[in-house]
């Protein structure tokens, strides 16, 4: 099955092409991300000194990055597979609301707080699977299908929560996620595990190779014997799963579930994935790049916060970073041909 | 979810009045007359404005996506500039709870003396505010309440329920006993407890004179959302006698929708108290006849109180030596008669 994928004429290679064309560029791009992050850190140290470089501050950055980071890792799979998902924020909201209703909380009191985690993850995965089925079997354009999910998931979250913020009463849940084994917050550990698992899945498994194939050239992938539709559903369900995990992390951070959670996540996640070097047209993706993308945006926010800089300047900086990243990407894409 | 004890609330009326004086007077009152104070009662502490120890205050509020919220941050910064002993750190305004939590975490890392916090969602910020209090930082909660009384040293609130009562009472007085009048309501963000409080106050006040809300829609405090909600409402209700709009920022959109629909058969009451609405009330040539003030200087009061608490001072004009736990500001009705009093301290949409 996957042996046919070895034929380079059928697929886009999973890793940046090594050799004369693009090898250096690929390196340069990842290097660019590292350089960008290092520059940001230098700016942070120069402007805020020990306040930036303290372990407390680094953990603050990582805690902030964790929630959107998990969503972005999931988003990397969908975009690499040639899709897009605008409904991630709404799915996070719906999962958080579902997992904090009085019903779920009563269940959690009876059988343990894991019930809340399961609810969030199940709801997220189900929403993602619905997106996938609509796109793969219903032939709805990803942009439109997930736009519909964005509206309906947030609406449903508002109905379930009656537009109120639901407070988590289960002490066991709060204590578990509040813990800091070895000084590292649990949600940061979850983020690390998700990142490593994502990297492994994309770069070291048949599933990952199929994802590149489907995103690069779905027709060729079909001819190579890949069940493209089924794989598409898996990709969106995987992102839904990531949203469910992110919802749990956000629940622990806010001690609430709310229909307003996850506002703007879709753009933050897409931006992080794109500046990381994953092609919006599909067929090429990098988990490491996405991780850097998330860290760059979060560190940027942190440096601005430490220096009392204005909202507006930060928005401009974000926009400039995205544009530069996409311009770089286009050059790389042009070199590929 | 109210965390105010009835007993405490009673004892705080005094504080509320004092704060309202601060807000509405825009400057401190001079000491009045020659009261015969016994030795047991200290004189008003009028030295509060004298420069004291350096106070580092962290400030975080939601995104300034409407005039009132913009004015909250602007007034807070302006207030801090009045004192050379305040070092104010302003975090980026955000509607993303995760980001707002990390801003407070940054303040905790920085070991600031006090944090003045207007949360996007009070319940969601409770846990991190509690962490700050545990770290020995004085937290002042503004406008949107935490869901635990331990998460803040002092809370400054607008009177949301009172706003609804003020608006409803105005309608009742204006209707003067007429029955069967149609009342409509355009609320703000429905998921916020403050919106629910306003609507409840409005309904309760109307009930006292046998009226009720016949049509209700919700907007999102923005001009665009106000226009959309009002257009729908005007379609749904062919005849209205009174319309209360919770928020003057979304009111700009509401007025546009009213103009487009060519309707003028009703009396409109605003909310929050923006300068442009007050100018309309003064001009008296639109449906706008009144607005209910919701002070946008709450965070500025939060800054002042944070400074007092850190420096160990008490509130002037109170006999109590500790700064109160809660201040509830008043929600007066502004009409053509008294508009000149309120216009100078109003915010621009």
Automatic annotation (TrEMBL), chain A:
What GO molecular function terms would the record report? transmembrane transporter activity
User: Main localisation, per the record?
Assistant: membrane
InterPro entries this protein is in?
A: ABC_transp_permease
On the tree of life, the source organism's domain of life is Bacteria
Give the Pfam families listed for this entry.
Answer: BPD_transp_2 (PF02653)
Is Ubl conjugation a UniProt keyword of this protein?
Answer: no
Protein name stated in the entry = ABC transporter permease
Please give the organism.
Answer: Aeromicrobium yanjiei
Automatic annotation (TrEMBL), chain B:
* Alphabetical keyword list: Signal
Location in the cell reads: Cell envelope
Family annotation (Pfam families): Peripla_BP_4
GO function terms (MF aspect): carbohydrate binding
Would you tell me the Gene Ontology cellular component terms?
cell envelope
Q: Which family does it belong to?
A: Belongs to the bacterial solute-binding protein 2 family.
Know the name of this protein?
Answer: Substrate-binding domain-containing protein
Q: What is the lineage of its organism?
A: Bacteria, Bacillati, Actinomycetota, Actinomycetes, Propionibacteriales
């Amino acid at each position: 099955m996957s042996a046919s994928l070895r034929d380079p004429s059928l697929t886009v290679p999973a890793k940046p092409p090594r050799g004369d064309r693009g090898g250096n560029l690929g390196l340069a791009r990842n290097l660019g991300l590292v350089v960008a992050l290092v520059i940001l850190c230098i700016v942070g140290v120069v402007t805020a000194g020990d306040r930036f470089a303290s372990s407390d501050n680094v953990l603050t950055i990582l805690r902030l990055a964790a929630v959107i980071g998990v969503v972005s890792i999931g988003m990397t799979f969908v975009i690499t597979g040639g899709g897009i998902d605008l409904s991630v924020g709404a799915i996070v909201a719906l999962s958080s609301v579902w997992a904090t209703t009085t019903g779920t909380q009563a269940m959690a009191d009876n059988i343990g707080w894991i019930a809340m985690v399961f609810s969030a993850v199940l709801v997220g995965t189900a929403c993602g699977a619905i997106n996938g089925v609509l796109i793969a079997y219903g032939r709805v354009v990803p942009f439109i299908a997930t736009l519909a999910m964005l509206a309906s998931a947030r609406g449903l979250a508002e109905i379930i929560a009656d537009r109120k913020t639901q407070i988590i009463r289960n002490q066991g849940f709060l204590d578990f996620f509040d813990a800091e084994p070895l000084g590292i917050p649990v949600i940061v550990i979850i983020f690390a595990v998700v990142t490593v698992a994502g990297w492994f899945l994309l770069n070291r498994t048949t599933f990952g190779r199929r994802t590149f194939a489907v995103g690069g050239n779905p027709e060729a992938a079909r001819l190579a014997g890949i069940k493209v539709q089924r794989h598409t559903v898996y990709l969106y369900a995987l992102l839904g799963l990531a949203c469910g995990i992110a919802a749990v992390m956000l629940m622990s951070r806010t001690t609430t579930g709310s229909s307003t959670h996850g506002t703007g996540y879709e753009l933050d996640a897409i931006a992080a994935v794109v500046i990381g070097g994953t092609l919006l047209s599909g067929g090429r993706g990098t988990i490491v790049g996405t991780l850097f993308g998330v860290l760059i945006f979060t560190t940027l926010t942190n440096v601005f916060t430490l220096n009392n800089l204005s909202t507006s300047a930060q928005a401009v900086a974000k926009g400039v970073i995205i544009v530069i990243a996409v311009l770089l990407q286009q050059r790389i894409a042009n070199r590929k041909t | 979810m109210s965390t105010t004890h009835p007993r405490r609330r009673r004892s705080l009326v005094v504080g509320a009045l004092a704060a309202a004086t601060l807000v509405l007077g825009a400057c401190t009152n001079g000491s009045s007359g020659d009261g015969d104070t016994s030795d047991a009662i200290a004189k008003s502490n009028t030295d509060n404005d004298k420069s004291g120890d350096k106070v580092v205050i962290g400030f975080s509020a939601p995104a300034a996506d409407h005039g009132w919220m913009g004015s909250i941050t602007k007034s807070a910064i302006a207030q801090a500039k009045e004192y050379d002993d305040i070092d104010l750190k302003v975090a980026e305004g955000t509607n993303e709870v995760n980001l707002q939590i990390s801003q407070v975490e940054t303040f905790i890392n920085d070991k600031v003396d006090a944090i003045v916090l207007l949360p996007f969602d009070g319940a969601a910020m409770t846990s991190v505010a509690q962490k700050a209090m545990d770290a020995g930082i004085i937290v002042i909660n503004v406008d949107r309440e935490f869901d635990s009384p331990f998460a803040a040293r002092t809370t400054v609130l607008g009177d949301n329920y009172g706003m609804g009562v003020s608006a409803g009472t105005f309608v009742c007085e204006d209707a003067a006993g007429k029955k069967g009048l149609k009342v409509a309501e355009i609320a703000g963000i429905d998921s916020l407890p403050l919106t629910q409080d306003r609507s409840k106050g409005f309904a309760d006040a109307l009930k006292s004179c046998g009226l009720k809300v016949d049509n209700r829609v919700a907007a999102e405090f923005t001009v665009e959302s106000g226009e959309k909600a009002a257009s729908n409402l005007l379609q749904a209700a062919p005849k209205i006698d009174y319309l209360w709009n919770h928020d003057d920022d979304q009111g700009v959109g509401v007025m546009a929708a009213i103009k487009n629909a060519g309707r003028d058969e009703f009396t409109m009451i605003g909310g929050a108290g923006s300068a442009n609405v007050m100018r309309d009330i003064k001009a008296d040539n639109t449906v706008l006849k009144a607005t209910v003030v919701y002070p946008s200087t709450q965070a500025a009061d939060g800054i002042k109180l944070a400074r007092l608490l850190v420096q160990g001072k008490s509130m002037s004009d109170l006999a109590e030596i500790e700064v109160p736990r809660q201040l509830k500001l008043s929600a007066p009705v502004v009409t053509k008669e008294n508009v000149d009093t309120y216009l100078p301290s109003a915010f621009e949409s």
